Amino acid sequence: MLEVKGLSKSFKDLKAVKEVSLELKEGESVGLLGPNGAGKSTTIQMMSTGLIPSSGEVIYNNEDALKNPKQLRRDLGVVPQDIALYEELSAYENLLFFGRLYGLKGKALKTKIDEVLVLVGLSDRKKDRVKNYSGGMKRRINIAASLLHNPKVLIMDEPTVGIDPQSRSYILDLIKQLNKENHMTVLYTSHYMEEVEKLCDRIYIMDHGEVIASGTKQDLQNLMQEEETVWIETLEKNEAFKHALEDDQTITQVIESDQGYKVIAEKREDLLGDLFDYAKAHQMKPTALAIQTPTLEDVFLHLTGRKLRD
Amino acid sequence: MLNLLKKDILTISKARSEVLILLVMPFVLIAILGLSLGGLMTGSAEIEPIHLAIVDNTTERDGGMTILTDQGLPDEQATAIIENLKVNRQIMTVIDTLEKEQLLVAEKMTTEAANEALNHADVEGVLTIPDALTTQVLTVMNGGEATESLMLEVIDETTIQSQVLRQIFRRFTSEYNLMMSIQTIKGDTLVVPGDLPLGETKTIETTTEVSAFQYFTIGMAMMFSLYVASSISSNAFIEKKQDVLLRMMLAGEKPVRYLLSKVVSGYVLAVMQLGILFGLSQLLFDTFSDRSSEFWLTIIAVTFVYATVIGALTALLTSLTLMMPTDSVSGIFSGLVVTVFAFLGGSFTPVEQISPFIRTLGNWTPNGAMMTVYLQQIQGYSMTDSMPLLMRILLLSAILFIVAWGLFPKRRFS
Ligand SMILES: Nc1ncnc2c1ncn2[C@@H]1O[C@H](COP(=O)(O)OP(=O)(O)O)[C@@H](O)[C@H]1O
Ligand SMILES: [Mg+2]
Q1: Burial code of A55-83, b = ≥16 C-beta within 10 A, e = fewer?
Q2: What sequence ranges are listed for the domain ABC transporter (chain A) (predicted)?
Q3: Measured in whole angstroms, how far is the alpha carbon of residue A261 from the centre of its chain?
């Protein structure tokens, strides 16, 4: 339905996006995962004809959307990364303004506004100025403003950044509803892998301006077939222990966290036994030792050698 | 368009800081300055004596004697006529009278000295009397054509001093021409012209004084209207930064409509602001007491002209802002340019008293030029007198808008 091919964008010397190709099929929910600065926002701005690419194509329903952006723009709802609203105006006034931009007016506009307000659960606060809203409410009204013209495709740029868990789960449920019940095609951008994992049928992983992996969650996990993720839960920390693990040729990554260590290592029979021996040698008493299915976080780590949220 | 306009006006009128800058501050300043400087201003708004250099190039002695004797006039009669006519002397008589009235301080100079004095702004004007002016006058009286005439050079067309000088000059020459034409009509019987009707020239300037409240109401209004432009461009920056502009663009908004909406917003907000300031000043301080409805109509018309240039300025600041990665344009404009313009334009003090040069400079700022126009209208000048400055403002508006459109990053919208 919407596809980009070989999309690149340079800002002066910086190559922000390099030869990115991705595709949204009708009714799909697709995730675009990557750390800050990976080029996600730049990619989706080009994809939504809001930024002219240095090279590459944007194709919507088999038509060149860069040459003729009208149809795509009419069918597209974009939720920008920033709160793209007027802070001094009330939610209602904002929605009136954006609705009119799309040529809605009169009763149809009012009905539509009421409808999206119910959808994002802000009907009772619609007269308040946006600047008096909480972070989560701002995010919700930011989404509402993109739904007024009944878009077929919804592109969202990190719609859950910096908000409380309740608002986050509200928004995730809302997106799921839009995708499953309202049959909107969704492109969801985030640097939170749990969200993408929960929400999306297919995932693209971006880093340094490039798509480094893509597929279903299972496809991505299969990238790590040769490796094993082991969780070592310990009460105390031990630097020497960590170094010993890192020095092991078969261990590729050791990540320290509050409750213990996560180890990614080559798959082999005696891995758990070896890890236990290392612990013993350093007078460590692990409370748990378990093989885990790899998360997208692990996949990213595997692909780039870095954590997703550095 | 109406949607964009309504949004701009709503966002600015609902923001407390904007209302503070655009309405509360100027009004408080009008009150403070008007009340505290009330005494100082009365009198100081009167016109200072004008410094005029006179270059008299007359060398002729018997100016045009032969013209008269050729017509068969006896020598003695011709000499008497010429003695009476000597134009350069008559001009000096007029100037003497004006000096006694303390309207003028005249000084005879050579051409070079006069030009230098004009360049250094030591004098506001130079009056040059060409050689053989009397002969010229006689030639004209006999149906010939003059080859030279009196010439007045002024330092700047737009200052009040220059206007007074020009009026004196215009009055003098038109009186003279009128008189001469009567002479020539009489044809062969040449009547000896009497003295020029000098009484007329004395009452040329009947300027109404400008009160402190009037002065500062105009001054503050002119200054704070400039902030309308930077407020709107600052909003445009937020629109860009927070991707509202992206939303507009994806909704198919055209760049020209966006820029025009900024012009109209600037225009409408300036009209609203000026209306409120003038109205409040009138209501609370009775600033323009007992003025005719004609006066108010003139003020309204002039206000529309000022709003136009504010609109164009808004467009320029918006274009510049959208080109920049930070909101430096609005910041520099409101922090620096407005202050400089306000000083040059005379918002705080009548700058022509400091230096006529500053006034000249000030009259090239939108606020300064319009301040001069408003003050002229308060003093009862005719619209014709204000026309050059009004035309200047309209021309400036056109230029500002064209530059704004040229700079506007249209590609962002395409
Ligand atoms: N308008 C711009 N001018 C210059 N550099 C930019 C611009 N927009 C983005 N970048 C740079 O491009 C890179 C990718 O940014 P972005 O697409 O916002 O990444 P993400 O959304 O994944 O965090 C970053 O290094 C960012 O600094
Ligand atoms: Mg981003």
Answers
A1: ebebbbeeeebbeebeebbbbbbbbbbbb
A2: 2-233
A3: 26
B/e letters for A96-121, b = 16+ CB within 10 Å, e = fewer, are: bbbbbbbebeeeebeebbeebbebbe
What ligand has the least distance to the C-alpha of B241? 1
Q: How far is B361 from B156, CA to CA, in rounded Å?
A: 10
Reported as a single tens digit per residue, the pLDDT across A65-117 is 888 888 999 999 999 999 999 999 999 999 999 999 999 999 999 999 999 99
Contacts of A82 in chain B (CB under 8 A): 241-243
- Minimum Cα–Cα distance from A65: chain B residue: B414
Q: Which of B11, B15, B246 sits opposite A84 (nearest CB)?
A: B246
Q: Whose CA is nearest to atom 18 of ligand 1?
A: A41
Diameter of chain A measured on Cα atoms? 76
* Ligand 1 atom having least distance to the Cα of A9: 12
The alpha carbon of residue A258 is apart from the nearest alpha carbon of chain B, in Å, by 37
**Hey, what amino acid is at A193?**
M
A214 phi/psi in degrees, rounded to 5: -155, 160
CA A301–ligand 2 middle distance (angstroms): 20
Structure pTM? 0.71
Ligand 1 pocket: which of A7, A14, A44, A190 to mutate (most atoms within 8 A of CB): A14
Rg for chain A, CA atoms, rounded: 23
What's the complex ipTM? 0.81
B52 CB-near residues (< 8 Å, 6+ apart): B95, B104, B105, B106, B107, B123, B124, B125, B126, B127, B165
Residue B411's closest chain A neighbor by CA? A52
Which CATH number is associated with domain B50-186? 3.40.1710
Scanning every residue of chain B, which has its alpha carbon at the shortest distance from the alpha carbon of A129?
A: B14
Q: What is the CA radius of gyration of chain B?
A: 27
pLDDT, tens only, A13-56: 899 999 999 999 999 999 998 888 889 999 999 999 988 899 99
**Quick one: which H or E segment has residue A154?**
strand A153-157
Question: What is the residue whose two structure tokens read 């600047």?
Answer: A131
| Other residues' Cβ atoms within 10 Å of the Cβ of residue A156 | 25
Q: Which region, left, alpha or beta, applies to residue A208 given φ > 0 means left and ψ of -120 to 50 means alpha?
A: left
| B253 interfaces chain A, CB cutoff of 8 Å | yes
The partner residues of A16 in beta bridges, in order of sequence, read: none
Whether residue A215 lies within 8 A of chain B, CB to CB, comes out as no
The residue contributing the CA closest to ligand 1 atom 24 is: A37
* CA A9 / ligand 1 centre spacing (Å): 10
CATH 3.30.470.20 fits A2-221, yes or no: no
List chain A residues with CB under 8 Å of B247.
78, 80, 84, 98, 101, 145-146
**CA B282–ligand 2 middle distance (angstroms):** 53
Interchain proximity A81–B241, CB inside 8 Å: no
CA distance A55 to A40: 16
Q: What is the CATH number of domain A225-293?
A: 3.30.70.920
Q: Are strands A29-33 and A185-190 parallel, antiparallel or unpaired?
A: parallel
pLDDT higher than threshold 60 for residue B206: no
Parse chain B into domains and list their residue ranges: 2-43+208-407, 50-186
Instruction: Tell me the C-alpha distance between A235 and A255, whole Å.
Output: 15
* Structure tokens belonging to residue B201: 């020239």
Q: Where in chain A is the domain with CATH 3.30.70.920?
A: 225-293
Measured from the alpha carbon of residue A46, the closest ligand is: 1
Regarding the beta carbon of A97 and ligand 1, being less than 6 Å apart is answered: no
How far is the C-alpha of B304 from the C-alpha of B268, rounded, in Å?
9
- Does the beta carbon of A291 sit less than 6 angstroms from any atom of ligand 1? no
Two structure tokens written together for B204: 């040329």
